[in-house]
Amino acid sequence: MNEYSNLGKVIIRQIIILTTLVILVLLSGVFYYYYFENFSIEDAFFFTAITISTVGYGMPENLSNGGKIFTSILIFAGISVVLYGVSTITAIIVEGKLKDFLKRRRIRRMIDKMKDHIIVVGAGKTGEYVISELIKEKEKFVVIDIDEEKIQKIINLFENTPIAYVIGDATEEEILKEAGIEKAKALITTLSEDSINVFVVLSAKTLNPDLTIVSKVTDVSSIKKLKYAGATTVVAANEIAGTRMARLTIKPHAVNFLDIVAFGKQSYRIEEIFVEDNSPLTGKTIAELNLAKNYQIMVLGINRNGEIYFAPTGDSMIQANDKLIILGDKEHIEKFREFAKL
């Protein structure tokens, strides 16, 4: 059971207990005055209400001695219920339960409205960089981490951006469902332990077979396991870091150029554009589109049925369901993306 549900149940249970006690005291008073003191239903209810509330409009002249004793007990019962209610409400407010519950409910609604979002598992250092890039690219995402302090650090780090999150173990299906796994388009798991990443990938792929999954791996020997579990792409952080360091030494200018493109040192990007059936790009050659002049972008390759054709010529014809790999300024890429969807 997740923390959000537990918190909601605690508050609801306390409210139910308080409501039940008030109703029981009220019904017992109405029952006694109606059957034993021969009051009408209206009078029995009215006298019970003013007795419980200790308003004190006066004692009925025909009240029996037994009625006086019962009324005294009813007064104490009413006071006890009121004190319990006040203490319960005070505890909820003072302990921050209500505020926390409302905050979690707001986040829950935010996640419920999401579709085609990205789930980021792990709010550690790698997760921070992933989240930073997703915010930069204006992508919708949900963060999952079992450590609430790490989640809070992410919230503080990106204080100007509303962060949707779930606190819990991402290997559990209920936690993934709470993050909207069935409606998500991708999952990125950045946990430091490869075995846990494998479990996350397995659970995610079971719940959403069409999900694109990118997983971090520490030990390259775990790559096969992650691929077998269903990971679309596996990123070996140590291998990438080592290769990059060597290339920076051998070919610094080329690597620095790739850094500009890949990591957004400037506004240049390598992006992928999907060509719909009814796209104005379908059936056109690259030369006909004159992309360099009209949009100041360059087609680096075409991903067609999983096979990539690098450096296509001007005679290369674009087909439906192609994915164009393009390089250009972010602003110009967005303009071209809008044109491709017309």
Structure explained in plain terms:
By secondary structure, the protein is an alpha/beta fold. It folds into 3 domains: 3-99, Helix Hairpins, CATH 1.10.287.70; 114-241, NAD(P)-binding Rossmann-like Domain (Rossmann fold, 3-Layer(aba) Sandwich), CATH 3.40.50.720; 267-341, Regulator of K+ conductance, C-terminal domain (Alpha-Beta Plaits, 2-Layer Sandwich), CATH 3.30.70. It is 54% helix and 15% strand. It has 14 helices and 10 strands. It starts with a helix and ends with a helix.
Short description:
The chain is built from 14 helices and 10 strands. By secondary structure, the protein is α/β, with parallel strands linked by helices. The chain folds into 3 domains: 3-99, Helix Hairpins (Orthogonal Bundle), CATH 1.10.287; 114-241, NAD(P)-binding Rossmann-like Domain (Rossmann fold, 3-Layer(aba) Sandwich); 267-341, Alpha-Beta Plaits (2-Layer Sandwich).
Comma- or semicolon-separated keywords:
Alpha-Beta Plaits; 3 domains; six-stranded parallel sheet; four-stranded antiparallel sheet; 14 helices; 54% helix
CATH class of the largest domain: Alpha Beta
Class from secondary-structure proportions: alpha/beta
How many β strands by DSSP? 10
What's the CATH topology label of the largest domain?
Answer: Rossmann fold
Query: Which CATH architecture of the largest domain is right?
Result: 3-Layer(aba) Sandwich
CATH superfamily of the largest domain: NAD(P)-binding Rossmann-like Domain
The overall number of domains is 3
- Write down the overall geometry: elongated
Give the biggest sheet: 6 strands, parallel
| Overall pLDDT score | 84
Percent of residues in helices: 40-55%
